[in-house]
Amino acid sequence: MQNAPLPVETATPASAVTVAYPSKQCEKSPYSSIVGRGNVPLLIEDCLLAEVPRDQLKREWAACKTISDGDVADYCRRAAGRLSRAFESEIASADLSDIVANAAVLFLLSLRESGVVSPDEIGPCEVSYDGTGAGGRVSATA
């Protein structure tokens, strides 16, 4: 994520999207391997697993802290919209780095809004964005 203004978008509201930091579940799961390397697994829409290095997560968290409280909802809406459109269209032709970046924006800003104060507090949880209603709705659960 870069600390630059997001372009104005006039697309229809995003359908629901989910980004999760899954629990290890079992020793042989890919999630436990990622956590074992000190990194963060992000499961995007239950079909795309990304590995985010811990130092990158800390840099992204620092960038998220510079976004004003008033702009957080707009950033979440835009990131969720991009994710939603990527999964509604041909995912095979989508830019995976953009998908992961938008998932990270949505994930980190949602956790910040739910009261997480440090990237070291981030553990297994799920962030959902439902943009089908007016203004969209973000929920984060541990």
Describe it.
This protein has a domain at 54-141. Helices cover 40% and strands 18% of the residues. The chain contains 4 helices and 5 strands, in the order βαββαααββ. Strands 3-2-1-4-5 form a 5-stranded antiparallel sheet. It is globular and about 35 Å long. The chain starts with 16 loop residues before the first strand and ends with a strand.
Quaternary organization: single chain
Helix content: 40-55%
Distance between the termini: 23 Å
What number is the mean pLDDT?
Answer: 82
Across the major sheet, the strand order is 3-2-1-4-5
List keywords for this structure.
alpha+beta, 5 strands, single chain, five-stranded antiparallel sheet, disordered N terminus
Topology:
Layout: E1 17-21, H1 30-36, E2 40-44, E3 48-52, H2 54-65, H3 69-88, H4 96-113, E4 125-130, E5 137-141
Antiparallel strand pairs: 1-2, 1-4, 2-3, 4-5
Helix pairs in contact: 2-4, 3-4
Brief digest:
The chain is α+β, with helices and mostly antiparallel strands. The protein has helices at 30-36, 54-65, 69-88, 96-113; strands at 17-21, 40-44, 48-52, 125-130, 137-141. It has a domain at 54-141.
